[in-house]
Amino acid sequence: MHKVPYTPDYVTTEPPAAGDTLEVAEGMLWLRMPLPFKLDHINLWLLDDGDGWTIVDTGICRDEVKAAWEKLFARHVTAAKPVKRVICTHFHPDHLGLAGWLTERFDVPLWMPREEWTWGRMLSLDSGDGLRPQFLKFYRAAGFDAAQLETAAARAGRYSRNVAPIPGAFRRIVSGEIITIGGRDWFVIVGTGHSPEHACLYCHEANVLISGDQVLPKISTNVSVWPSEPEQDPLAMYLSSLDRLRGLPEDVLVLPSHNYPFRRLEGRLDDLEAHHAERLEETLAAVAAPATGVDVLKKLFTRELDTHQLFFAIGESLAHLHRLMAEDRVQRSLGADGVHLYRKT
Questions:
Q1: Of 126, 193, 133, 196, residue with least CA distance to 159
Q2: How far is CA 206 from CA 92, 181, 210, 212, 335, in A?
Q3: Mean pLDDT of the chain
Q4: CA distance 286 to 298
Q5: Is 100 strand, coil or helix?
Q6: Over pLDDT 70: what percentage of the chain?
Q7: Concatenated DSSP letters for 168-228?
Q8: CA 319, 325, 329, 334: dihedral to nearest 10 degrees?
């Protein structure tokens, strides 16, 4: 049966310029900050918190992002209505990158899940020397050639170069917790797979879900195996956590970290599940004969990839291979050269 393509119901496709805002719901301002990648932006949120503001996610640590924040502060932040706290959905640098700068500037607390803070804090303190041997072992096993391994070695410690110093203390948020912002209750829904303990925020009264990276309207959320957890099965975690978002109203307004605010969440969840089911079958076909992770990557990603995309693509390829291994549909062996070979069982 032919699958009907999913079409998000966008609220608007005209985002605010960097440093400007657009009110997408009462008391909820949409910000968009630049990113130095093909995915060239991140959506952030400024929530009216009564006598102040709550910031949700921060952008990457770059001068142009700080300048955009300063422009926004001049328009919205006053002594009578200051920033009260910063909430970060997860530890990735486009979300946590300026948390330290913002919390120090306004002397306010950072709120986020503990495992996300732990990962961000740990990686921010590592210059790369401690990570490089594991990076090389991991990507060699995936089938990287000498030039790709050199690139991988240079990326060790990259996280610390994209974040301001992360606060040494934070306020932990947990799944099921209710956070009151501006008199409204926001329910914390934790997702996994994309990151260890990704916090989504749902407000029943406003019928709004801040989905972060856990659900995006157009591109699929990156679900990858990384050198720090080389045997992880993140795709199982991700697919399972999507069920935690089911049952929300069909017309819930979803505020994602990339692309545009949209509705029709349930349809998007179905679409994501179908996408990964198709990807698993494509991965299985790619290992009919013994193949490396890079061999599989080339079958799954046929377009030209830049360096940033390459590492996401190999991570996703391995995530699908690991899911098939857990289902006993693929077996893996390690050659004398340190390279893994995958084959359909």
A1: 126
A2: 27, 12, 11, 17, 56
A3: 96
A4: 9
A5: helix
A6: 99
A7: S--EE--TT-EEEETTEEEEEEEE-SSSTTEEEEEETTTTEEEEETTS-SSSPPP----TT
A8: 110
Label residue 27 left, alpha or beta by phi (over 0 means left) and psi (-120 to 50 means alpha): left
Amino acid at 39: L
8 A C-beta contact, residue 22 and residue 36: no
Which DSSP letter does residue 291 get?
A: B
**Side chain identity, residue 327:** E
pLDDT tens, residue by residue, 49-66: 999 999 999 999 999 999
Fold of 9-129+159-281: Metallo-beta-lactamase; Chain A (3.60.15)
pLDDT digits (tens, 9 = 90+) for 35-49: 999 899 999 999 999
The number of residues making up the chain comes to 345
The two structure tokens encoding residue 34:
């630049």
Separation of CA 150 from chain center:
26
HSE-CB at 28 with a 13 A cutoff on CA atoms is 23
* Alpha carbon distance 107, 100 (integer Å): 10
pLDDT at 274 over 70: yes
Name the DSSP class of 91. S
The conformation of residue 303, written as its DSSP 8-state character, comes to S
CA–CA dist 222, 332 (Å, integer): 23
Q: Where are the domains of the chain?
A: 9-129+159-281
Rg (CA), the chain: 20
**Tokens matching residue 7:** 């079409």
Which residues, 6 or more positions from 327, have their beta carbon under 8 angstroms from its beta carbon?
none
